[in-house]
Amino acid sequence: MISTSNAIILRCIDYQESSKIITALSETHGKISLIAKGAKKPKNKLAGVIEVGNILEVTYYYKPSRNIQTLAEASIVYQSLNFRKDFDKASILYSSLELISQLIHENEENEDMFSFVQNFIQWLGDAEETHPSIFAYIQLRLAQLIGVGLIDQSSLGNETVFLNISSGTLAMSPDTELSYKLTEKQALFLKMSLNAKNAEVFTIGLANSELKQLIHHLDVYFKYHIDSYKDRQSDIIFEQMIQE
User: Fold this and answer.
1) Cβ pair 33, 20 in contact under 8 A
2) Buried-state track 212-232, b at ≥16 Cβ within 10 A, e below 16
3) Which residue of 14, 27, 200, 240 is most buried, as measured by CB atoms within 10 A?
4) Is 30 helix (H, G, I), strand (E, B) or coil?
5) Cα distance between residue 141 and residue 119, in whole Å
6) Are 138 and 120 in contact (CB under 8 A)?
7) What are φ and ψ of residue 72, in 5° steps?
8) Angle CA(202)–CA(99)–CA(167) in degrees, nearest 5?
C-alpha cells in the first residue's frame, strides 16, 4: 500500500554505504521506521531533506508486517536552520525528540501527539529566545499526552510542596518514601506549567542546578510509570547547556 503523510524525523542513522534508516512520527501510522535508499549520495533527491527535526510530507510503501517501510518521496514542510546554528535550540530539540520516541508506540496513530510535536518544533525553531526550562515543560506536557500527567493537589501559596512519584501529585506532604521536596521555584514552575500553560513559566528564573534536579525528578516519574524507560543519550549535549 502506498501511503502519503506528514511526518516528523525523530532519529536518523546511516545504513550501509548510501542509505539512511529513519525513525519518524507520522500523522497516518504513528511511529514508523523508513529506509531512505541512496539518501547519503549528494545528488540524491532525498539528500538534505532527511534531517532530525524536519517536518516532511512523505510517500512510502507501507506493509504492516514489515518492521521497516520503504521511503519513496519526501519534501520539506518545515525546516529551521536555527537548529544547526543555535546550540541551545538543538540541545532542547534532540533531547525532546529522544524522549518523544521513547513514549510513543510503533504504528500507533496519535493525532494529539503529532499535532503537539509539530507545533513544538515550529515554535522552538522560530522562537526569539530559548530557555533551558523548555525541556522540563515538554516533559510535563508529554506526560499529560500519554495519560500519566501530574495532578496539582497543593494549596495556592503553600510554601512546602512535594512531588509524589507513585501517586503523580503535587501535594503539601509526602505520601511515600519516593517523594521529592521541591524548591519554591521548582514548585512554582510545575504549578504554572500544569495550570496556566503560557510563556511566563520560562521567566521564573530556575537556577541551572534547580532545573537539572527537576528534570531528574521528572525522569524518575517516567521510569516509575512507564516500562522500559531509559536514560537519554542526548542529555550529554543538553547538560552542556545548563552547566553553571
Assistant:
1) no
2) bbbbebbbebbeeeeeebeeb
3) 27
4) strand
5) 13
6) yes
7) -100, -45
8) 75
Confidence (pTM): 0.91
| Amino acid of residue 21 | I
H helices present in the chain, as ranges = 82-85, 87-103, 111-126, 134-145, 184-195, 208-225, 235-241
| CA–CA separation, 69 and 61 (whole Å) | 6
* HSE toward the beta carbon, residue 135, CA cutoff 13 A: 32
Q: What is the pLDDT along the chain (244 residues), one digit of tens a residue?
A: 898 999 999 999 999 888 999 999 999 999 999 999 988 888 888 888 999 999 999 999 988 888 999 999 999 999 998 998 999 999 999 999 999 999 998 888 889 999 999 999 999 999 998 999 999 999 999 999 999 999 999 876 667 899 999 999 999 999 999 999 999 999 999 999 998 777 889 999 899 999 999 999 999 999 999 988 988 887 777 777 776 4
Cα gap 133→13, rounded to integer Å: 28
DSSP 69: E
Looking at residue 1, its amino acid is M
